[in-house]
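COURSE: Structural Biology Practicum
ASSIGNMENT: Worksheet 4, Part C
STUDENT ID: 0417
INSTRUCTIONS: Below are two proteins. For each, the amino acid sequence is given first, followed by its structure token string. Answer the questions at the end about the second protein only.

PROTEIN I
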Amino acid sequence: MSVQVILVHGIRTSATMWRTQVAHLEQRGIGAHAIDLPGHGARIDETFTLEGAMAAIDAAVRSAAAIGPVLLVGHSMGGLIATEYVGAADPPPVAGLVAASATAIPRGLGLHAYRTLMRGFNALPGRGLILTRAMLRATLPDDTRTDFGAGGYAFGAQDAALRSLSVLDLAAALRRIRVPVWFVNGQWDQLRLHEKVFASMVPDSELIVVPRTTHLVTAMRPAVFNLVLDLAVATVEARADRASAGAAGST
């Protein structure tokens, strides 16, 4: 059974942010499914809720699990929600998790400050798109620079999405995870805050820090991130093969 990869975007962006990863996986013959959460991308006219986001991930995971073992990949907000999802009390059919730029507990002053910053951007002319595009020009290679905005920017969903993150119980979720996990952060990522705590709470986890890289690690260093995906896919595939061989041997 072929490993199936589900990719969950971060806040404000959409499934288009994964263009390079989808192309890489499909070139290797691996099923790649980048989804849009409510209020983002093709679903931008919908209202974002945490329940709706979880339902979108669950639908994609269960559909893919009928084909093969599932590797769930999330960036930033998508990584935090994916972590909560995988660590549910009733574990979903996920065989591995890659959480990129998603190792901070979204609570308290930090979350409040970020929401205030985003409201400030929204209040600027053009909702601060000039600054956003300038930042992307300064940090991302030509090949991936337009991917974050190709599906539109979900300005209307971002405050509700940020607010919803405060109810996540990531500490409890992390303790329950029993599948391989790769935490991937850029060296200059602001969400590295609790990376060592996250890694220490998951028995089978690996922390990967990409040098000279920002929060947008998937697009700033796509070749490196694709290598992480290759490692994760190979690990999930090998585990599935061993489990299949063990089941055959016991019959």
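PROTEIN II
(use this one for the questions)
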Amino acid sequence: MLSFRKYVIIVIGSFLIAMGTNFFLVPQKVLDGGVIGIALIANYVFDLHIGFVIILCSVPIFIAAWVLNREIFYNSLSGMLISSFVIDLLSPYQGDVLRVFAPGAIPSAMIGGALIGTGLGLMLRNDASTGGTDLLAHFLSKYVPLNVGIIILLMDAVIIGIGGAVLSGNTFVNSIFTILSGGVATGLCTLKHGHRRTRRL
């Protein structure tokens, strides 16, 4: 069972992830890596709820986690469910925030990535996560001769590449800024504890 303190950290991290996604990435149609990137593409193309798509995409990954590693399953499930719920919870407030603060595409990509990376970093620092492509890469590394970080990077590249092809070249370029700023933020949050830099949803 997760401690009360860990649940509080997960909720705080989830709000940061949701703010970065709803208030900075979505208005500019920018992508992130991982499962959240897939969910953003589904939102931009089919107008589906981001949190709902994250849960759908995560089901097979968490089934594998349940079978292969119960500890990872329990440490990641709450983070994925809570962050997905909060993303959809904050979605109706995009317009209110944009009326107050609406930076351009690249600043939005960087701010959004930093917020998402900070939210994930807080979770990782306290031994929680949102699962997603982190779990998939962890399992794939057992069967392919590649480092987990390389697998995550390749998956992120494929996701934003598909998004760029479906949406626009600007989406691809701006999404690179999201991934870079998110990676720096996650790394800074986990630096003192020596955690491996892990990607987001």
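ANSWER KEY EXCERPT:
Q1: Residues 194-198 have pLDDT under 50 and may be disordered.
Q2: The chain has nine helices and no strands.
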